[in-house]
Amino acid sequence: MTAARIVVVGTGYVGLTTGACLAGLGHQVTCVDVDEAKVARLAAGRVDILEPGLSELVGRGLTSGRLTFVVGAREAVRDAEGVFLCVPTPMGAAGAADLRAVEAVTAEIGDVLPPRCALITKSTVPVGTSRRIRELVGRSDIPVVSNPEFLREGTAVADFLGPDRIVVGSDDEGAARWVGELYADLAAPTVVSDAASAELVKYAANCFLAMKLSYVNSIAELCERLDADIDKVTEGMGHDRRIGRSFLKPGPGWGGSCLPKDTHALLRIAESVKFDFGMLGAAIDENLAQRDRIVAKIAGAVGGRLAGARIGLLGLAFKAGTNDLRDSPALAVASVLGALGAELTAYDPAVGGEIAGMTVVDDAYQVAKGADAVVVLTEWDEFKRLDWSYMAEMMVGDTVVDTRNLLDPQLILGVGLSWQGIGRPKAYSKVVSNA
Ligand code: UGA
Prior knowledge:
Elements: E1 5-9, H1 13-24, E2 28-33, H2 36-43, H3 54-64, E3 67-71, H4 73-76, E4 82-85, H5 100-109, E5 118-121, H6 129-137, E6 144-146, H7 156-161, E7 166-169, H8 173-181, E8 190-193, H9 195-226, H10 230-238, H11 259-272, H12 278-301, E9 310-314, H13 329-339, E10 343-347, E11 359-360, H14 364-368, E12 373-376, H15 388-394, E13 399-402, H16 409-414, E14 418-420, H17 430-434
Bound molecules: uridine-5'-diphosphate-glucuronic acid.
Uridine-5'-diphosphate-glucuronic acid (UGA) binds next to helix 9.
């Protein structure tokens, strides 16, 4: 397709990735934000979020002149062929998505959009939002298209440029196909649908992933009770192509800015049409139960008394590769430990500064100093490469609770510590506990 004139409203990780990647695909892209200081930083090529490849892509876009950053959506959209809405849709009252940002932008630009300019939602929005936007704009010459993103934090650029699929949905099929064409160079399968189906795809996919993880965490709990090995169970499951190998790692529960918000939102959507989506509700409950089980495991590692126990935490981000703390299971576990009287010292390679209820240090070995137990909460690769004999020397206690099954248990046992993972056989923690 020939290069299109695109405006992207919102420069969060979705908007900025979308803008920079579309410019990389040859389109003429203007990114808009309300935050003047942020726009100035981006226009100077400074990217605040940790997203591999994004700074380089923004730099190339700026140099080529295909990517610009401005304040003020109203001016920016006047000659656009397509406008992507990439503004936040946080969890609002009672779990439903809060659409105020989407509605505010729509109201701001609705009357100045040029005829046939496609208004495209990329933010995750409840089913029916395209219709709502059409009503708000009130113009029959403006097609509204849902084009959900499936970007993971930490691999957003790679996900954008190598997508499993492109989904475009609109009640104006021509407009949906036009948006699909913007990605023609990516050679991904394109699903063209009505607006409501495209809006539902995103929730259906994220909630499926959340349910898959809650299922795996439940199986891991069963493994512990039956003395089986979750690594072997998931390996055996993953070879079944209908199940697939990815998203089968147990952990301290799923978190981040998307899965928790989208599971609650889909529950509310189901409720609004009087459907009791019990399976999804159970997945959310199971996720909370997983955090409780982790806390109980840590309590067990310090002899059952968390009050006054010194716990060293490795990892705070909701997953490795990001500095995002939103709905991080690590923080949720830490806050319960803190409430129960534990003294917390934490290290995360991507997170610094002050966090209430804990001392954040900038050196992993500091978390071991005087610790009764060390807990791995985020799967950063560098934790594997720590000098664990030095960690053991610094510790007062002898247990490493590895909520990500990240470390090699033999290595930990080899330095005289006890290792406790998730859903792994008791044999792995025997050395110290049997001594
Ligand atoms: C998720 C989806 O994976 C993306 O496809 C989607 O576009 C995005 O939400 C969104 O809605 O914008 P993200 O939140 O970046 O992406 O994170 P994931 O990689 O999906 O991880 C979510 C949580 O599951 C994390 O807490 C992670 O640690 C956990 N997880 C993931 C596991 O515990 N085990 C696994 O095997 C995989």
